[in-house]
Design goal:
The chain is mainly alpha-helical. Helices cover 76% and strands 0% of the residues.
């Protein structure tokens, strides 16, 4: 009797270990392009001399057109077919998107604006695939086994996501940003068309190869899933009255505010990370430091000059040299600034584990409130701090963001009963906030001529999240309309 009970409540049902490993690997895999693409704003800004508003279109394509428009079709697709079919469709779209990076590179020989537009289309296809993949895989893992262990099982798989984020940041730093030419937009403007195209083609080749390699990895995983007997997971909630469900959810103040808070959180996260490289370059004036070294400076000269800009980077370079990680040492201003992005993701990972541990001793809503208040303080320091103080504060925001997404999700979904599954789609659609807030930040930066001032956008988002955590999320009345 006891043996059967233990077997029933296993985190991973017996006999499906390898399929579960495949599914869990996807949480790592889809984080890689998400975080590689964050650094692409800095890369394309350098390569094609774009404005902040123009580079922000990358995130609009990713999170509004990709995630925002394809989450619901993905849910409908797996509802009509199977979870495995949804996973396969998501991976296939991602692979097609990665392949499209190659013709986008070739188009640069015709027109740089057309090439950028083609890259945006490739990114759109990839992120449409990521939306379907994430929708399918989350639901698959959740439904794969005993319902009493579903949340814990999903959290276990999601724990690999931050490591994928870190891998994506490292890959973009080593294989893309390190390959960028150090010429500024002003210096590129004085080059002949053929000289500029030659430089751009070399830089775009680095971008393209990184995504093609990612596509090959996804192809391998897709083939493994196709030829692996995947376990069945049934969704027993097939017939739903959507009109009645949405009617109840619309009256649930806690849920509506939860979706609003999630919208602003995802927007703030992507806004913070998308312009982090740009912010660090501005605050620490890396371009000017490198320019003083003369034409075509050696990497040793660049590292020697950057080592003394502020102590954290100097310590990071020393650690990389000690460990033999020469690929992590900067060759360009963008790669030097990406050091802070990598360290921010390390804080993000550490923060998630620390907050998970703290939840044994305090309520999640208290943790969210504390993180929100700290994020607002760090945002103000980012806006008004000078030099490395502002950069450190911006890194600190990543630590504050670590537990926000799952905590907001959990608080917003409380007490929904049979409406929980449909309510979850609203939380997924909130990812579109990344597109709006990033674009607003890019426009604000261009209009006022200050990337620092543009960080008022995520600051306001964190104020809204903190308001939710201090007021509505604490209400014990979770019924509809209360």
């Amino acid at each position: 009797m006891n043996t059967n009970n233990v077997e029933k409540h296993r985190l991973i049902p017996a006999g499906i270990l390898f399929p579960f490993i495949l599914l869990t690997s996807l949480f790592f895999i889809w984080a890689v392009p998400n975080n590689m693409t964050d650094t692409m704003l800095a890369a394309f800004k350098r390569i094609m001399s774009l404005t902040d508003t123009e580079t922000a279109w990358i995130q609009v394509v990713c999170y509004l057109l990709g995630y925002g428009f394809f989450a619901l079709p993905g849910a409908i697709y797996i509802k009509k077919r199977t979870f495995k079919s949804g996973v396969q469709m998501g991976l296939l779209l991602c692979i097609v998107g990665s392949i499209l990076f190659y013709p986008a590179m070739l188009v640069n020989n015709i027109s740089s604006p057309l090439s950028f537009a083609t890259y945006l289309f490739a990114i759109f296809v990839m992120f449409a695939g990521l939306s379907v993949l994430e929708t399918s895989t989350n639901a698959y893992v959740y439904a794969l086994g005993d319902p009493t262990t579903a949340t814990r099982r999903l959290n276990f798989s999601q724990s690999f996501n931050p490591f994928g984020a870190l891998a994506g940041a490292l890959a973009s730093q080593i294989f893309v940003l390190s390959q960028l030419n150090t010429l500024t937009a002003g210096e590129r403007a004085h080059l002949s068309e053929s000289e500029l195209t030659t430089i751009q083609n070399g830089e775009l080749n680095a971008v393209t190869m990184a995504y093609l390699i990612l596509g090959v990895v996804m192809l391998v995983v897709l083939l493994l899933i196709i030829f692996t007997k995947m376990p069945k997971a049934q969704d027993d909630d097939k017939s739903l009255n959507l009109k009645a469900t949405w009617g109840r959810l619309r009256k649930n103040k806690n849920y509506i505010w939860g979706v609003i808070a999630q919208f602003f959180y995802v927007g703030a996260q992507i806004a913070v990370w998308s312009f982090m490289i740009r912010y660090a370059m501005h605050q620490l004036d890396f371009d000017s430091v490198i320019v003083t070294l003369g034409a075509n400076p050696s990497q040793d000269a660049i590292i020697g000059a950057l080592r003394h800009v502020e102590p954290v980077a100097g310590g990071f370079y020393a650690l990389c040299e000690f460990l033999g990680l020469d690929a992590m040492l900067p060759r360009t201003a963008e790669q030097a600034a990406a050091t802070y992005y990598v360290l921010s993701l390390v804080l993000f990972v550490l923060g998630r584990f620390i907050c998970t541990w703290l939840m044994k001793y305090t309520r999640p809503v208290n943790i969210l409130s504390g993180l929100g208040i700290l994020a607002v303080i760090c945002s103000f320091l980012t806006i008004y701090g000078e030099g490395f103080i502002g950069v450190y504060a911006l890194m600190g925001i990543s630590g504050c963001m670590s537990a926000m997404f799952p905590t907001i999700y959990g608080l917003g979904m409380r007490g929904l009963g049979d409406d929980t599954k449909i309510a979850g789609s609203g939380m997924v659609m909130a990812i579109a906030g990344a597109a709006l807030l990033t674009q607003m930040q890019g426009i604000l930066s261009d209009q006022v001529g200050s990337i620092k001032f543009a960080y008022w956008v995520p600051a306001i988002a964190f104020i809204i999240i903190t308001y939710y955590s201090l007021t509505i999320a604490r209400s014990k009345k979770l019924g509809n309309g209360k």
